[in-house]
């Protein structure tokens, strides 16, 4: 096949796509990466304690099982090392253009090809695969006065390691998964940590442990043990968490586990009350952590639940006064529902993707959009998980896209039919109806209008089945 493929992003998704192209002998691809190295979110998020709350053996490619994980839950350095190792092992580096950001892509109908514009110029490609992730652009809060602050401030995903926090007064705004991971580390060295909590999160224990040499060696020597462990993890994680998100049998159990965790780790009933959520478990991303609550009970940590009124030159102001700070860390999440923004993507008939998506991003199988021929997405709309490893979804998507390439090579450009998109939208809406994400909470799973644009509302096995291979009837082809 002589197709040329532009891959945008060198994180889990982009690397997976490139590896499968390499395996298929298709070397006419380029990965454009805006950062200085591979790794995506695992290159960017280097805050103290950064790691994954999905088990390591699950958070890796099925075709590149890594028997060397040292812990049940991997730390950021170990995941980054895994991705770098994959890039090297599969010989991807010569085709990765680092520090090169894709700013726009437009489909040239006369050529049936994409004009991909980057910070280095413009090139033509037959196929574009966006693998930019959902959590790549940090979101600063819309709080007045952020520029007035006279101390140091930064976002958790852009940690300023030049700052020594020893003895400092640190204000943390936000208390999601990122904050839960770094607050325990920061609290060990800071003089005072004020955690500004707008909404409490449900927290369940993270049973982390080092594997130890014996187990690591056994995983390495016995592939069947490794395979079996991975399979068990997959079934266990999905089996317990998915029914809860769908309002099923495990909801009560999970709630009980979370409340028990809170009770065991926070003896003070008044603090416990402030940390108890009033919305259904799973509505927001569940925090999986065993060090967060103990950190909040430290004498140098204060959980502030008063509303922030503004950022003042000397710290964070709430209705009850000024909380002085030397450093403010914004752990305020990402522009998750903007998907491919700020890239300007233009399809057939001059259609702009941001215009098509003005009421919320959507894509057939989370992968393809009508009027955008030969454009595919990895980790696109409605493919995020609250209950298992995103690497599984990425592999399904990459397999599907690989299955599309022979059609493009043989029948010309390939574009999902609007009727297929309508059917897809209806089935997604039906499945979404039972999910807990709709239930009285705000979260990054939804866009500003409250539509769940990010999450996949069924079991991952369902997604694997429907993405097994492309159905030609869902597409129109053009030479
Ligand atoms: O961001 P978040 P995150 N004033 O969006 C608060 C993944 N991840 O970086 O809940 C005051 O979850 C906001 O408050 P509220 C994981 O999927 C994975 O922590 O909106 N507060 C909230 O507390 C995760 O879900 C791992 O009321 C404001 C926080 O900021 C995703 O990344 C590890 C505010 C934002 O929380 C994002 O997590 C880490 C304001 N104006 C992250 N604006 C793994 O282990 C926002 N907030 C796999």
Folded structure, characterized:
- With about 475 residues, the chain is an alpha/beta fold.
- It has two domains: about 5-135 and about 335-475, FAD/NAD(P)-binding domain (3-Layer(bba) Sandwich); about 145-205 and about 230-330, FAD/NAD(P)-binding domain, CATH 3.50.50.60.
- It is built from 13 helices and 21 strands.
- The strands form six sheets. It has a five-stranded parallel beta sheet, covered by helices on one side.
- Strand 5 (about 115-120) and strand 6 form a beta hairpin.
- Helix 1 (about 10-25) packs across helix 11 (about 390-410).
- It is globular and about 70 Å long.
- The model has no long low-confidence stretch (mean pLDDT about 95).
- Bound molecules: 3-acetylpyridine adenine dinucleotide.
- 3-acetylpyridine adenine dinucleotide binds near residues 53, 179 and 332.
